[in-house]
Amino acid sequence: VPELPEVETVRRDLEALATGRRVTGVEATGARSIRRTSAATLAAAVEGRTIMGAERRGKYLFCRLDGDVLVVVHLRMSGQLRWTPAGQPRMAHTHVVLHLDGGHELRFVDPRTFGEVFTTTPDRLAADAPGIARLGWDPLLDPLPRARFSALVTGRRRQLKALLCDQGVVAGLGNIYSDEVLHAARLRFDRTSATLTPREVGRLYRAIPEVLVAAIEARGSSLADAQYVDLLGRPGSFQHQHQVHARAGQPCPRCGRLVIRVRYQGRSTYFCPGCQR
Ligand SMILES: [Zn+2]
Known about the structure:
This protein is α+β, with helices and mostly antiparallel strands and 277 residues long. It contains eight helices and ten strands.
């Protein structure tokens, strides 16, 4: 499932490849992928417009077009955005295609169809997508002084993993990177946030951007069960640097104890019983 590092990798690719390209046509065949809008509305909003750049907030991607039009892409479980030469055979589950001048297409592919594509404008964004308006701290975009981060964490009684995965608190973390951040901070997933000492808060505060920046440098994580690839279809390599996530039964690189997998909120959580408290 794409989280902040994967979406940021796609954003950077998109910014580099698509900026300056004009949308010459739109095909939207996947009704569920465009459930907030219609094929006609999507086409009317973007046809003839030029892509000015790409932005990201949390796990949402925004393609900025001239005339203050935004194409919002949320990959969710299995969505992929792919840059392909025009006319190349389409993969199964290709639901939306933007035809661009210069001979390329931007394709939204999504086998499980939880992802979506819709258009809006900057001033209508909050009304059109309340989920985006409610996003919390984006660790890459928003400066957050340590005192305010401390209040965010210790002012609540939540288990740390649930807190970190709450998009209204920290935007962009999910199952993979919350495990890696908590290992880097030497904290257990089920610690109650209000019990953290100032020193522990400091470790968590540093670990979040540290892990995310390293993951972006490695172009994200592509696990065996995940479908994540970048805009050109290439997998990321951060999975080779994971300390705990998807490493059950293997030794912790820091202390040598074997990594444990537990069921938490319906999904697998990984941690080291030796060095995470
Ligand atoms: Zn350990």
